[in-house]
Amino acid sequence: MVARAYTVAFEGIRARQVEVQCAISPGLPAFSLVGLPDKAVSEARDRVRSALSSMAIALPSKRITINLSPADLPKEGSHFDLPIALALLAALEIIPADAAEGTCSLGELSLDGTLIPVIGALPAAMAAAEDERTLLCPRASGAEAAWVGAAEVIGAASLADVVRHYTGQSPLAPAEPGEVTTDASGRDLLDVKGQERAKRALEIAAAGRHHLMMVGTPGSGKSMLAARLPGILPPLTAPEALETSMIHSLAGLLDEGGINRTRPFREPHHTASMAAIVGGGRRAGPGEISLAHNGVLFMDEFPEFARTVLETLRQPIETGEVMVARANAHVKYPCRFMLVAAANPCKCGYLPDPARACSRAPQCGEDYMGRISGPLMDRFDLRVEVPPVAFTDLDLPASGDSSSTVAGCVAEARALQARRFADAGRTWLNADAEGEMLEQVATPDTEGRDLINRVAERFGLSARGYHRVLRVARTIADLDHSDSVRRPHIAEAVSYRLAAAKES
Predict the structure, then answer these.
(1) C-alpha 314: how far from its chain's center?
(2) Euclidean distance between CA atoms 500 and 504, whole angstroms
(3) What is the DSSP string of 132-165?
(4) What is the reported pTM?
(5) Torsion of CA 268, 273, 277, 280, to 10 degrees
(6) What is the pLDDT of residues 52-71, one digit of tens each?
(7) For 351-393, how does the pLDDT look when each residue is reduced to its tens digit (9 = 90+)?
């Protein structure tokens, strides 16, 4: 007799079904594991044997063979412990065989039978729902996996609990979805003195998910402004939270007992490698751009990043997804993020200040900003200069709107876009609009069209630049509660574009 249990193997955010087959046959006592397991999976034999021994379950003096099917799919990770134990318990007729077959399970076993949480519970729940199976996982992973309402999720604390559940001695209650709340109210836009133009650019960027570049001297408040961006972004919708959390689950970031509705805010150091930013490594895991999916990727000291790293951002910015290709894996991850970059105007940082600028000005500024290629700079919708703030201005009262006020305007603008693009397929916000859809929603009035045509001719806007101006203008019109794009909206959008053209 062959007993079966089911688990998953991960390919990106996709979880592929793996059938765990257990056969106990006459022969010399042995416990063999086949089906292309890696070292962590091979070690499951000893963990399972010890966990069963702690429950006073002795393995028979026979040949035990565990096969992980399909055999040509690489199996990695410690989450195969629980399904191997389930298949073995079903083969020993300790739990019903049909119960094991109707369950998709994952979890790591300690030597005393305690279940340890593992990564990937959320994608595994999605796979279990597709196959109409119950998901069995460690209790600590249950709140995360239970967000997939189409699958019943059982969270167990130990292997003994699993046995008592399936033998009817002590059934376990289904897990409840958990949500982690993060308070972003500690950082308010009112903390930033002055910089009204930069605050306005932040509001526009947040409303339409436009990419933003801030250039200013050290201490002018670029990082301070970026840190307040999460406070004006609306919370993730349920589909966005599920999609984002699947990536975070694979990266092992969901360790607080549930998923988070706060939009991701990732800020990698400028020494980060290409694999860290784009994704890769031995397991072709997600990088920072995918971990920032539906959120913000803040790259401070932007020109200090390696040139190869910066250039790899160009395609993901346009397509919203990245293909991580390795010798043994080709994995696609979503990466629809808002890029916020901050940079000094030159290497010393004080190019605009005649009293402190170096003797190589303006050549030092051109050399420093020249590290950012023209095609990459062209992908920034908004470019804003952040002037230095005098220390005497720090005693002035707070100016501008608070984060809560700006967040309300951003939420209204995003709700408007949600209604506009409700039936538009892969278009969610103004930054995603292209082709005929862009013409329908962002065609300016006659005065606005005359203005943008003159600007395009005078400053040589590329086709991409022309369309990005229209998208930004549409967002400004949404913030202005205007049905049409008018000349003032085009003028403000162009003002952010010309700063980029001037520098590049």
Answers:
(1) 17
(2) 6
(3) T-EEEEEHHHHHHHTT-TTS-EEEESBHHHHHHH
(4) 0.90
(5) -140
(6) 999 999 999 999 999 999 99
(7) 877 777 677 777 888 888 899 998 999 999 999 999 888 777 7
